[in-house]
Amino acid sequence: MTTTLVITGVNGFVGTHLAALARTAGHRVIGIGRESGTSVRLAASLDQYLTADLYETWPVTEPVDAIVHLAGLAAVGPSFREPQRYIEVNSGIMTRMCEPLLARGQAPRIVVVSSGAVYAPPADTTPVSEDCPLSFNSPYAVAKLLVESQARYYAARGLDIVIARPFNHIGPGQGPGFIVPDLTAALRNLPAGQPLTVGNLNTARDYTDVRDVATAYLTLAFAPKHEQIVYNIATGRPHTGREVLAAITDALTIAAPTTTVDETRLRPNDPGTVIGDSTRIRAEHGWAPAVAWDRSIAEYVSQARAAELESGL
């Protein structure tokens, strides 16, 4: 029997990969986005696309087997400029999705995507597990934790909900505003002999390939059962910004430039190392990352080059 998966925020970085993975696995895929349409690539992975403002309405009336909820306002930085909007929109979407499901007596598995950014900055290099302290250190984190609280509320009301907390993810198709796309663009536009202006490249983060993240969401969506409500998604291996820069220059087949630090890009309380502990999802569901971090970067660079050539840049 064919199972149906709904992906909210399907036009995004993760949504595009998740739709392709779900289609390959044989699921019927319904995508929801604010945009009037999708890319040709994404359309090939969808059985149905619904245009909707999820803050206003939940457009799916038919019974479905699972929902991966990616929609909402994302990114930490912009949340400081619009704190109340982040809280209202992300919380409102959750309410408008779950209330109709309750009213209709429908209980699909719902994977609510939160973030590893909700944890308090670690004091050392101990991997961050699901039991570690949480932190309300940005409007983004506040909004994510509010949505998590709503998820627990609706789980108590009878909905089948799990919460995924992914750490940093990278890979083909990622947009600007993140370390790999931004460093790649800066290197490609750097005049010969000039230093590259950077932030703090000595901090280390846990980078998971987007396809491994999508596999984790799909695993949680269709697992026969789940013993826990919260699952971290991470590799358990940190890499510094300097390692990321070296992997990009290798992929571009260029020499590493000298660097100069822009003090305005530094975050005063930025932890030196953040490592995610994904023991829980590995032990219970057998998930494990399969794509090496440097391969992920190389494939991002290759995809970005192909996209530039296609657009004639």
Task: Give a verbal description of the structure.
This protein has a single domain (4-173, 206-237, 274-291), classed as NAD(P)-binding Rossmann-like Domain (Rossmann fold, 3-Layer(aba) Sandwich), CATH 3.40.50. 38% of the residues lie in helices and 16% in strands. It is built from 10 helices and 13 strands. The protein has helices spanning 13-24, 40-43, 76-79, 83-103, 139-156, 179-188, 210-222, 241-252, 279-285, 293-311; strands at residues 4-8, 28-33, 48-51, 66-69, 109-113, 160-166, 169-170, 196-198, 204-206, 208-209, 230-233, 238-240, 259-261. The strands form 4 sheets. Strands 3-2-1-4-5-6-11 form a 7-stranded parallel β-sheet, with helices on both faces. It has a two-stranded parallel ribbon with strand order 7-10. It has a two-stranded parallel ribbon with strand order 8-13. Helix 8 (241-252) packs across helix 10 (293-311). 39% of the residues are buried. The model has no long low-confidence stretch (mean pLDDT 95).
Strand and helix map with partners:
Elements: E1 4-8, H1 13-24, E2 28-33, H2 40-43, E3 48-51, E4 66-69, H3 76-79, H4 83-103, E5 109-113, H5 139-156, E6 160-166, E7 169-170, H6 179-188, E8 196-198, E9 204-206, E10 208-209, H7 210-222, E11 230-233, E12 238-240, H8 241-252, E13 259-261, H9 279-285, H10 293-311
Parallel strand pairs: 1-2, 1-4, 2-3, 4-5, 5-6, 6-11, 7-10, 8-13
Antiparallel strand pairs: 9-12
